[in-house]
Amino acid sequence: SSAPRLVVAPGNEALLKEQSEELWREYTEGSWAHESPVEAGGMLLRMPLEAQLTQSLRSSGGGGGGVLGSALRTRFEAELPVPEEGDSGDAAAKDGSAGDGGEEARFLANTAYCYRLCEGFVAETLQALLAKAKGGKATVDAASAGGALLQAYQEAGQEWQQVVLVLRSSAAGADGVALNRPLAARGNRQLAELLLRQTGAAEALAGPLLAAFGDDLCAYLGGPSEQESGGLLVHGDGSLEGAVEVSPGTRIFTGGERAAIEAVAAGRASPLAFRWFLGRHTGLTTGEGAWRAVACARPVALKQCLGLPKPLWHEVMELCGGECATLSRLEILKRDDLPSEDD
After folding, report:
1. CB-based contact 174:183 (threshold 8 Å)
2. What mean pLDDT value characterizes the chain?
């Protein structure tokens, strides 16, 4: 018999059933996610700063990881337990030369250990920078470990737990939209015209859009770039005139705004089957550990992210399993605002 389906977010599944019976059925018949190369129709997940630093630490042994990797390597080696006298490997284990890499390799492979080490490094480094500040201001050398950490800390805060649907990928990086940043503004004329700007018929379509979608117009902040250039419509209906598949076989589509409005107005489609985005992410890469690429089941990318009991980031990370699931658990331990049903 087949293995039981992995259920990581029952509350989210119940919400999806209310949104779309079809997507819910597809999700329950085969919800999955796993790490993969960056590809259109897949996702990029913003990693916690501690996970990003863990990659720098792991790269530092071969001379990579930059100034942060070097600083973390020093801390790691200082804290690495020394085998007691007479233990096999002895001092050789300290430098990773024993057996299959010795103690060093074993501790570097321990995600929770590296996460905690990096967490302590962040806290102590930021505290040291704060202690040097005068009048609320501090001069920090951008090339130093402190300067690099401060920049990484700020970027991680701005992009915290974003889940980006990749629309296109090239050697220069990936472009996409954040799936889990809903806009507070809903259902006003200004927003409608902005969402439709790229169609060339924003004024004519804004009224029908608002009339058809009403309070179920679901708009998201897709990213920091191109916020004034018009919206992007994402959905799973390839029959709509003007719809373009993100990548062959994904059954995830963009465009077809006029046809979508007409379908909703005629009762042939639900407004919750469509997601509108303002802004994009551009040039995202996985090389420095800030983003992790994931392939996932179609409903994970198409469902709405409004009032989810378990945040989408945690849901996808736990579906991936392995180190991703470990990082999700470590992040959940920092929070007291998530319902226990899905923890």
Report:
1. no
2. 90
